Structure formats: C-alpha cells, structure tokens
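Lab manual, section 2.4: Encoding a predicted structure.

Procedure: take the sequence of the chain (419 residues), apply the prediction step described in section 2.3, and record the output as structure tokens. A sample record is shown.
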Amino acid sequence: GSVLFGSGGSVFNSTFTNTNTHWSDGGAVFFNMNGSVSACSFTSTSSNGNGGAVYFSGGGSVSRCSFTVTGSNGFGGADGNGGAVSIGGGGSVFNSIFINTVSNSYGGAVSIDGGNGSVVNSIFINTESNSYGGAVLFFSVGSVMGSTFTNTSSYASGGAIFYYAGSGNVSNSTFTNTSSIDHHGGAVYISGGGSVNGSTFTNTTSSNGFGSNGGAILFIGDGSVTGSNFTNTSSGWNGGAVYFWSGGSVMGSNFTNTSSSLNGGAVYFWSGGSVMGSTFTNTSSSLNGGAIDFQNGNGNVTGSTFTNTTSSSFSSGGAVYFNGGGSVTGSTFANTSTSSGGYYGGAVYITGGDGSVNGCNFTNTCSSSNVYCTKISTTTGVGEITTIHTTINTSNVYCTTIITTTTSTCVGESRTRHT
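Recorded output:
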C-alpha cells in the first residue's frame, strides 16, 4: 500500500489512487494496531489479503470517507475479507460511501471482526462478496443505522449484511435490489437474535431454489421486525420476506407483492411466533400459507389485514397456516384463496393443536372451507366470525374435532352471512 503504521495512528484528509499490495493486507493503509481514517478518498485500490483500501489489525474507525472500485482478493490462503475496509478488533464506519467494492470472501465493502461493530449513515452501491455479506459482515455483535444499500449481492447468505456469530440490529435503513445468490437472507442474515426496525426492503431476493430462505431477512436466534416495509421480495424456499428459525415477532409492518417457492409467502416461523397490526397484500406461496406459515409451535395473529393472498399447488391456508395450533383475532381477510388444487382454509388453516378465530371479517375467500381447524378446544365460544361475505366454498368453517365449546356450531356464531 501507501501507508503503514507499526502501532496506532490516524490518517486525515488524504487521497489514495491506484494503490495495491501484492502479498499483504490494506491496499492503501495498514494499521498494525488501532487506528482511524477520516475525510479521505480511495479510488482503484486493492489488496491480495484483507481490506482492499484500509486494514486495521486492532480496533478502528472510518468516518466521512469515500471508496470507489476497491477490492480484497485474498492470496495464498488469505481470507480476502472487506472489499474496502477490514477491522480486526471491533470498530465503526460513519457517514461514508462505498461504490463498486468487491471481496473475494466476507464483506463486500466492510468486514468487522472482534468486538462490537457499527455502521451509521453510510451508503453502499454495487458492492459484492463471493461468500457472506454483500456489503457488510460482522463476525460478532453489530448494528446498522440510517444506511442505504443498493445493488448489493453475496454468493452465499446476507445479500447486504451478514452477522456471523453474534446478535444484530438494523434500524432506519433502506435495501434495494439486494440478493443472496445461493443461500439465505436476500438483504440481512443474523446468526444470533436481533431486530429490524423502521427499515424498507424493495426487490430483495434469496434466489436459489433448495435452502434459500428469507427473501429479505433471516434470523437464526429470536428476532423481531417492527415498523418496516417489504415490497417485491421473494425466496427460493420459505419466507418470501422474513424467516424466523427460533421464535419471532412482526409488528406494524407492511408486505406487498412478496412470494416464496414453498411456504410462507411473506413470513415463515419455524418455531412459533406472533404477528400484530400488519398488512399483507398480493402475497403468495406455492405451498402452505399465502402470507404466513407457522410451521412448528404456537402462533398468533392479531389486528392484521390480508388482501389478495394465495397458496397453491395442493396446499392449505390461503393467508395463514398453523401447524402447531394458534389463534387469529380481530383481523380482516379479503380475496384470499387456495388455488390450483389447493386443499382447505381459503383464509386460515389450523392443525397440530388448539385453534381459535375471534372477531374476524372474511370477504371473497375461496377453497373447500373458509377456516379449517383440526381441533377446537375452548370454553369461550371458539371464535366469533363477525362477518362472512360471498365465500366460495363447501362450508364456511370446517373442524374435525370440537372439544368443550359453549355453542352448537363449530366456531361460535356467524353473525352475518351474505351469499
């Protein structure tokens, strides 16, 4: 490179162009310990190790810098992490921009190892990794705030961001045209627990068929999504927008034109979870749960709206599918269906445990039954379905087992029914 610090140091208000290392890390700047870089510009820099422009062996900070056409290639077994910046001991990136950066391994633009890491108010455009994290990779705990990711991709998981081992949080950020080509999390992959708040995902995808879960986000640990928007997201397997491996929750979020090639056109829960105050429009799955699939464990849906949701190909649950029992309360379903030979539950399908549907409205739902429950067990009237309009099915509600209900009908009373 151009500058090497044997211990700590700082670089300020400098420009680096066409610099590279043939055998080591840091295409322009190398810190053997902690360091900082601020108000600098890096263009056409590369390394055959880690950090296409800047490498910190210890902790480091980058602020108000620009990186254009930088790359970490790896050589002779070297990792090649961090297409622009590689930080070895925890650190931060603030108010910086990364354009056309590439990593041969982890983190298409930024790789942060060791302690806590953060990326704040930064922009990533056309960044790529040949492994995990199309723009940013955290080996441990990390957070991303107020940042923008456009046209980022990873060959493996995390089309924009990948959390390798720790928990992660993403807030007030935007993801557009991000993809994981061969695995999970078209935009974000979090190995531990974490949260995504107030963020927007558009045209994100986990594109390969087998094993490509979470068109926008995948959580391995407990996760939550709050106040976020998902549009035109898709997965090659389960969870067209979000996939939860452990427990999870979705609150106050919107899903539009999301799809999965298997289950959960918008959201997939492997181990139970909850959805509150969210909207699902034009979502679809090729198998169960046109909008939501609770595959194992109990699930709950409250105060949510489902419009034009579909499950097809000998499937069930045009909007919501429960495989471990569950409840739906105060929600609205319009134009939901199981199609192409679909089975039961044009709106809701509940099996594998107790189920209840309370205070919900159904309009133009289509299948062999509007709500299908294999077991209803309650003493409170099992779900008053307040309004059913123009249901195109054999029966409005179908249950195979009813235990201790207080009414003579399968699911409480249907107060209003229009055919």
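Check your result against the sample. The chain is about 0% helix and 45% strand.
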